[in-house]
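TL;DR need structure tokens for one chain.
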Amino acid sequence: MRQIVLLRGVNLGPRNRVAMGPLREQLAAAGFAEVRTYLQSGNVVLSSRSSPRALARQVRRLLAERFELDVAVLVRTRSELAEVVARDPFGEVARDPKRYQVSFLEREPEATLVSELEALAAPGERLAAIGRELYAWHPDGIARSKLSAAIAAQRLGIPATARNWSTVTSLLALAGEDPSA
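>> reply
TL;DR here they are.
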């Protein structure tokens, strides 16, 4: 089964550095098939018979043992990622894919948390919580957004990692490609 592995907070600054080449090699050596990475920010597409939860635990353990990294690992199957893209609640307004983010959460957020996040939205910003994903449109950019900062904060209380819309759709395409081609 094709699965997408999302690592939280790697290669964004001086901490949690991991080169994608060695990561691919270690994942392949651990028995995962068709291992491919996208960009340098912890996006991996691979094939595994493990459940998404089991795969997340396996990859997290591998990162700790081989790279001395302790980061959250979130996994979605290719079909789950296809559903994330198909839902696209802001497709009509989100014109810049770099300002449109999907946060992948380990579990569904409580309604009170979603309300707290919605209260932080600046005029024009939008937030939609659908299942284990938070979709956020930041028309004025992400850098100064209180909403974006709150979603990214570890105090969210749920392991999560965000990807911009361009990355989300590219990962879906990569997961659908024949790696032997």
